[in-house]
Design brief:
heterodimer, A: alpha/beta, Hypothetical Protein Ychn, Chain: A, 5 helices, globular, B: 134 residues, alpha/beta, 5-stranded parallel beta sheet, 20% helix
């Protein structure tokens, strides 16, 4: 089955991203396809490459990155909503330079894109599963 | 592109958290995809479409007027939970008079809001292909 996931909450404060990760991992192990994971609301914070949890805790961002969800062209299908990301200070290299900001924090396993990607995921997938509060 | 039934489930009030406005942003983008779109308002979500909202005192954008634009995007199925209204001492007259022009009926203006019981809403939800919960 082709599955997409929407994550509405940030890491550590909520369990949504952890549960979604466990779900995605289990689905892949069972032979399902994760078409896209879309990060929205505070969920965009799951893409920060600066995340540094204590050593005895899981690294939510790296867990997602290691899952390596990509499309046939090799582009990441961990997609961060651009509007939600920018207003929360989550920038990739291109948005940082476009806005004259001297840094960027989106992990390279993720990419920034628009809300249309969420709708497209809903259309293309057999299931869209929402994780949030 | 295939047409699917998308429902946007609004469960929280306009202010206090970001869910309401960011849900509306998705709905407006979704309009461009020509899907069969409906919105549901349950729990505190019913406050999103209450008439006469004013956010001046809290430094927030009053986005409630945007709901009036939905009819122009062929988004005209707004289901409101009767139980959620009643629990909050509200009735349909407290809500914005959201309407659309029905192209199949000589562009007659018709109300977009339909107050339904939770049981009816549950049935409508079960008929959807995609339910996005905010």
């Amino acid at each position: 089955m082709k599955i997409s996931i929407q994550i509405n909450e940030g890491p550590y404060q909520h369990q949504a991203s952890d549960t979604a990760y466990q779900f995605a991992k289990a689905a892949i192990e069972k032979g399902h396809e994760i078409f896209r994971v879309f990060f929205y609301h505070d969920g965009v914070n799951n893409a920060s490459r600066f995340t540094l949890p204590p050593q005895d805790d899981r690294n939510v961002v790296n867990q997602w990155a290691e899952l390596g969800i990509k499309n046939v062209d090799g582009e990441p299908e961990l997609v961060v909503c651009i509007a939600a990301a920018l207003r929360r200070g989550m920038l990739d290299e291109s948005e940082a330079s476009k806005n004259g900001i001297d840094g960027n924090n989106i992990h390279p396993a993720f990419r920034i894109s628009g809300l249309g990607q969420l709708i497209e995921a809903g259309i293309q997938s057999d299931r869209l599963v929402v994780f949030g509060d | 592109m295939a047409t699917k039934k998308f429902m946007y489930l609004n469960r929280r009030s306009s202010f206090g958290t970001v869910y309401a406005i960011e849900s509306l942003e998705v709905v407006l983008i979704a309009a461009a995809f020509e899907q069969d779109v409906s919105l549901a308002f349950i729990d505190d979500g019913v406050y999103q479409i209450v008439e006469g909202q004013n956010a001046d005192g809290i430094g927030m954008k009053n986005f409630s007027k945007t709901f009036h634009a939905l009819g122009d995007y062929d988004i005209n199925k707004l289901y409101v939970s009767a139980e959620s209204l009643e629990e909050r001492g509200l009735n349909v007259d407290d809500l914005m008079p959201l309407a659309y022009e029905d192209e199949d009926d000589d562009w007659a203006e018709k109300p977009s809001i339909k107050v339904v019981s939770n049981a009816q809403l549950s049935k409508i939800m079960s008929e959807q292909d995609v339910c996005l919960s905010f």
